[in-house]
Amino acid sequence: MTTRRTAWTQAYVVVRVDQVPGVKGMDEEAAGPAIEIDGYSITVKEVVLSLDEATREVERLSVLNAGKDCSYHWQGTRLFTDGGSFGSKGTQR
Length: 93
What we know:
4 strands; four-stranded antiparallel beta sheet; about 35% strand; alpha+beta; about 20% helix; 2 helices; flat
């Protein structure tokens, strides 16, 4: 039986951490408000469905942007494909 505790897919987010406040990697209106913490700007670049893809993308972006005041990381997360979360029933599309 599928429940909210099991109705998710393992996913990975690729994030950019800028050491210069205010640097934006995306249009703020489309991406939402900036995430700034202690002089760092955090941008979620994308969500992928495999750890291998996440690590490859972090490595690619790190090489591509070497010398800039930023770094790239991945973080495991849950993707609720029905649009919900642990705290909701979701919305069928």
